[in-house]
Amino acid sequence: MILSQPAQNDLGPRGRPLAGRTVVITRARSQADEFVVELEKYGTRVIVCPTIEIAEPETYERLDEAIDHLYGYDWLVFTSVNGVDYFLLRLKARGHDISEIDELRVCAIGDATAERLRAAHIHVDVVPEQFKAEGVFAALEQFVGGGEMLLGLNFLIPRAAVARDYLPKALEGAGARVDVVPVYRTILPDKLDRARLGAMLAGSADCIAFTSPSTVRNLAQLFDTQDLGETLAGVVVACIGDITAQTAAEYGLRVDVQPKQFTIPGLACAIAKHFADK
Fold first, then answer.
1. Distance CA 41, CA 263 (A)
2. Which of 1, 13, 247, 268 is most buried as measured by Cβ atoms within 10 A of its Cβ?
3. How many Å apart are CA 254 and CA 30, to the nearest integer?
4. Angle at CA 215, nearest 5°, toward 111 and 39?
5. 252 near 228, Cβ under 8 Å?
6. CA-closest candidate to residue 101, choices 134, 70, 127
7. From residue 260, how far is each of 37, 57, 93, 235, 240 by CA, in Å?
8. Mean pLDDT of 80-98
9. Pick from 260, 267, 154: nearest CA to 210
């Protein structure tokens, strides 16, 4: 069910339709604050139970090589805030200056990613309206003046070690050269308490929110199952976007809530709207 984002005042008495509800969020703890604040606006009790942790890549070899040869690229494509943060940390560690990015075109997927780049004084040329890979390719194609103009361009995509291949393959299909380099990994947190999480999901949780495919896959890994349907029986499942929802479906989940706008505020609002309509 895809929900548009209504005004908060339309969501029940004093805009608190989640009063008395408990929402479990699976996002990395270091990135959970914004989501907690957005959900609490609607009166919910939030339990942060991250199923992923952001870690350094197993090796910096490919990233270091790309950073040392930035002059050989035409475009930098950042797919997340994590990608920006880890790339810039490594750029500095290698003794390079941010000004070296000035000669490149920069694409940022999502407003938060674009804001993080601008805060670091890096220009942003393209922010696609659609956050998934298909929309990114269309935006890049439009920016350069057509698919034929991608021929011969060199793209660097610093991103998670595991991610979709659609964008690199689409760019290569148009004749571009693409280097995809891992700048971080998503791993299972060391101290995640499976028994506590299982009891919570079987008891007090009204909703569980997934903000990336990794959060779904890691939850399945935690419970050693390919079918989360029984584990999350009776719990409303909310996903931030199409790709996360698709992954949830692959693990036996019915997605009850998906925002039209694939952002954290959009997801929080869609969850509130779901319960306000009950």
1. 16
2. 268
3. 28
4. 60
5. yes
6. 70
7. 20, 32, 39, 21, 9
8. 95
9. 267
C-beta neighbour count of 123 within 10 angstroms: 11
- Structure tokens belonging to residue 56: 């350094």
pLDDT of residue 108: 96
As given in the structure block, the two tokens for residue 266 are 């959009």
Q: Which two tokens stand for residue 262?
A: 């694939």
pLDDT over 70 at 115, yes or no: yes
Question: What does the alpha-carbon distance between residue 168 and residue 33 come to, in Å, rounded to a whole number?
Answer: 31
Separation of alpha carbons 186 and 53, rounded Å: 5
- For residue 261, what pLDDT is reported? 85
Angle of CA points 225, 56, 79, to nearest 5°? 80
173: tokens are 């299909």
* pLDDT above 70 for 3: no
Q: How far apart (Å, rounded) are the C-alpha atoms in residues 7 and 190?
A: 39
Q: Are the CB atoms for 137 and 170 separated by under 8 Å? A: yes
Burial of 145 by CB count in 10 Å (0-12 exposed, 13-18 middle, 19+ buried)? exposed
Which of 94, 66, 87 minimizes the C-alpha distance to 179?
Answer: 66
Neighbours of 30 (CB within 10 A): 11
